[in-house]
Amino acid sequence: MMAAVATMVMSLGELLGPTAGDLSGLEIHDLVADSRQVEPGAAFVALPGLRGHGLDFENDARARGAAVVIYEPSGAHPDVAAPSVA
Questions:
Q1: CB atoms < 10 A from the CB of 61, how many?
Q2: Is 20 buried (19+), middle (13-18) or exposed (0-12) by CB count in 10 A?
């Protein structure tokens, strides 16, 4: 199991700069890559893995309170729910 990448409180704009777009003011309390570690206010970073993609766990991350899903678009998951930053 992967540990939390970082623990902090910052805006999505501080984290991603102009890439955050309309979500730049969204407050992020944690940054995690494991959907099982998502707590309310966290940003879930969906990364490709050996057996699948983190976006396969987007619904779980949102159910646990993810404020946003951050991922690199590849065309494999065109139906990612908002808010998300690709």
A1: 26
A2: buried
| Per-residue model confidence (pLDDT) at position 54 | 92
pTM: 0.76
Quote the tokens at residue 9: 């409180």
Burial of 55 (C-beta count, 10 Å sphere; 0-12/13-18/19+): buried
Residue range 21-74, pLDDT digits in tens: 899 999 999 999 999 999 999 999 999 888 888 999 999 999 999 999 998 876
CA pair distance 43, 7, nearest whole angstrom: 10
Residue 10 to residues 1, 15, 29, 85, Cα–Cα distance (Å): 25, 7, 7, 16
As assigned by CATH, the class of the 6-85 domain is alpha beta
Pair 74, 1: CB distance under 8 Å: no
